[in-house]
From TrEMBL:
Protein name (record): histidine kinase
Signal peptide stretch: none
Enzyme Commission number: 2.7.13.3
Membrane-topology annotation of the record: Multi-pass membrane protein
Native species: Azospirillum picis
Reactions accelerated catalytically: ATP + protein L-histidine = ADP + protein N-phospho-L-histidine
Alphabetized UniProt keyword annotations: ATP-binding, Cell membrane, Coiled coil, Kinase, Membrane, Nucleotide-binding, Phosphoprotein, Transferase, Transmembrane, Transmembrane helix, Two-component regulatory system
SUPFAM superfamilies listed in its UniProt record: ATPase domain of HSP90 chaperone/DNA topoisomerase II/histidine kinase, Homodimeric domain of signal transducing histidine kinase, Sensory domain-like
Coiled-coil stretches noted in the UniProt entry, renumbered to this chain: 317-351
Transmembrane segments: 285-307
Length: 579
């Protein structure tokens, strides 16, 4: 959980601003390049527009300089000629919408002017100091922008020399204003201005900027601002920020950034400038930045969601693995406990068996020993008395008792005996018949009915005939013992063959086996019989014998409950009939 969250935080705190900054920077530079390109194109248009405006009327003073009336006026002026010329100039100026149109003599004296009727008439004024006049006289034509000294109206002057008989007699001058142009530029998208060689704006669509000088420390490369020329004039309210072509203007609602584009006009005296708003660049940068930020944030969130799911999955797997391992640990511990308990139990069972065995053997042997002792003592007395018959009889009793003791030790030896190793086909039917024969007197004595259900043909099993008989004698004998005192005493012996196995069962109608005794029946020396009646070795020996045969011996109660008698089942491997 922790790692994905930390990564998400990092992505959001670091990735989002970085992506936003990078995207905004990239978009801004792209937008700025676009803006620069379009501003330059726009400026070229304005430039063409301005030049067309200036040259629109340049032909008029040139034509007038060739005019015969002008020449004759300048050669020999007369009041009539002056008056006639005044009217003519007035008409032409009105038609051109020019500020003034006038004729000067070679000394700079104004002879006739379109504004002859007005208070600021040029007639009689001397403008010989004006650069356009001097240039026209020297080179044939002169241009100049200036603030009119008489009219105080700025204008663009175009002057042409008048020649009469190869002699300079004067000049014709046209002065036009820029109202029309400024109106055409209007308060458009761009802020436009034209500066003269002193860096003073004289044409602009920003009325407040007229006659303001360019800032002295304009960082762009403009060869227009000779020191001192614009001294005393107000400076344009421009602040420079960052790049050299970035201008900040204080406007309503705070400072705004503009891109400054400049182009020198042919002749080199004038420069046209445009200021284009950088707002679209900012907008594009913002949009790109926000988009990038949103994208990165979305990506980070998606990655976070995926990581969360993954880590939840991993956690679940880890938990499953842990609980599996815990289970394994517990099982291992439980197994170890079980093994320890089992060991203890086996040990205890062995000790208990040993105790029982000792008690059993001691009892079985002590009785005959004690009897033998008394028979021997008696024999000594009888011998002294010379009763040889009685002594013989005692000695006979002693011999019988030793036989009985021998029988006991034989039984013990049978328990110790190992498999002979020679197993062969044995007839199970024959073994049953033989065992019943051996037990005949006992069964008759105890009035036991035997029902045997044996196949007609012999069933051949793997085993050894004497020991198989021993097992059957034991089982049938036990059955008879278990029915002692019961009203019905019936033993049922059945033999069937199924799946390569012979099933031989011995069922009785006796007391059955107590639930607690069932698991211990085959343990050596387990017996419920009175001391002297059984050693508790029969079933354990039988069990060992049957296992040697590769079969099994199991015990159960009939109907699954004690009280209905017991049933012992022998499973033996069937085999081929002997050749
Ligand atoms: P023993 O006959 O000397 O007691 P066994 O090993 O032959 O030794 O038998 C052990 C015990 O199994 C018997 O003491 C008896 O409690 C029980 N048992 C054996 N066969 C039967 C049977 N058919 N019905 C009830 N209990 C039986």
């Amino acid at each position: 959980m922790e790692r994905p969250r930390r990564l998400l935080l990092t992505a959001l705190l670091l990735g989002v601003p970085v992506a936003a900054a990078v995207a905004a920077g990239w978009a801004a530079s792209r937008a700025e390049a676009d803006l620069k390109e379009s501003a330059a194109a726009q400026l070229a248009l304005y430039n063409a527009n301005l030049r067309a405006e200036l040259e629109r009327h340049a032909a008029v003073p040139l034509a007038l300089a060739q005019d015969a009336e002008v020449k004759s006026l300048l050669s020999s002026p007369s009041p009539e000629r002056v008056e006639h010329m005044n009217r003519k100039l007035e008409d032409i100026a009105r038609a051109l919408d020019a500020l003034a149109l006038y004729v000067m003599d070679s000394k700079g004296q104004t002879i006739a002017a379109s504004n002859w009727k007005t208070a600021t008439s040029f007639v009689g004024e001397n403008f010989s100091y004006r650069p356009y006049f001097r240039k026209a006289l020297d080179q044939g034509e002169g241009h100049h922008f200036a603030l009119g000294t008489t009219s105080l109206v700025p204008g663009y002057y175009t002057a042409y020399r008048v020649l009469a008989e190869n002699r300079t007699v004067g000049a014709v001058v046209l002065k036009i204003g820029f109202d029309r142009l400024e109106r055409a530029w209007g308060p458009g998208q761009e802020k436009l201005l034209v500066t003269d060689r002193s860096g003073v704006a004289f044409i602009t669509n920003m009325p407040d900027w007229r006659y303001h000088a360019l800032p002295r420390r304009l960082p762009i490369d403009l060869p227009l601002v000779p020191e001192g020329t614009s001294e005393g004039l107000d400076v344009l309210p421009w602040a420079f920020g960052g790049a050299s072509d970035r201008i900040a203007l204080e406007e309503r609602g705070g400072p705004r950034s503009y891109l400054l584009t400049s182009v020198a006009m042919p002749g080199g005296d004038w420069t046209l400038h445009s200021l284009t708003s950088l707002a679209p660049v900012t907008v594009r940068a913002w949009v790109a930045g926000l988009l990038a930020a949103a994208l990165v944030a979305l990506g980070a969130l998606a990655a976070y969601a995926i990581a969360l799911r993954r880590s939840a999955l991993v956690e679940r797997l880890v938990m499953q693995e842990e609980s599996r391992m815990e289970l394994e640990r517990r099982v291992t511990a439980a197994k170890a406990d079980l093994r320890a308990a089992e060991n203890e139990l086996t040990q205890a069972a062995k000790l208990a068996a040993l105790g029982q065995m000792s008690a059993g053997i001691a009892h079985e042997i002590n009785q005959p020993l004690a009897a033998m002792r008394s028979f021997a003592d008696n024999a000594v007395v009888l011998l002294e008395r010379g009763r040889a018959d009685a002594v013989r009889s005692n000695l006979g009793e002693i011999a019988e008792l030793t036989d009985r003791m021998a029988a006991i030790t034989r039984q013990l030896k049978g328990f110790a005996r190992r498999a002979s190793g020679t197993l062969g086909p044995v007839s199970a039917n024959a073994a049953v018949t033989q065992a019943l024969l051996l037990l005949d007197s006992k069964l008759r004595r105890e009035d036991v009915t035997v029902e045997s259900d044996l196949p007609d043909t012999p069933v051949w099993v793997v085993g050894e005939d004497v020991r198989l008989q021993q097992v059957l004698v034991n089982l049938i004998g036990n059955a008879a013992d278990a029915m002692r005192g019961c009203p019905v005493r019936r033993v049922r012996i059945a033999l069937v063959v199924a799946d390569g196995e012979a099933l031989l069962s011995v069922a009785d109608s006796g007391t059955g086996i107590a639930e607690a005794a069932l698991p211990r029946l085959f343990v050596p020396f387990f017996t419920t019989k009175e001391a002297g009646e059984g050693l508790g070795l029969g079933l354990s020996i039988s069990h060992g014998i049957v296992e040697d045969f590769g079969g099994s011996l199991t015990a159960a109660n009939r109907n699954g409950l004690p009280g209905h008698g017991a049933v012992f089942t022998l499973r033996l491997k069937t085999t081929e009939q002997p050749a």
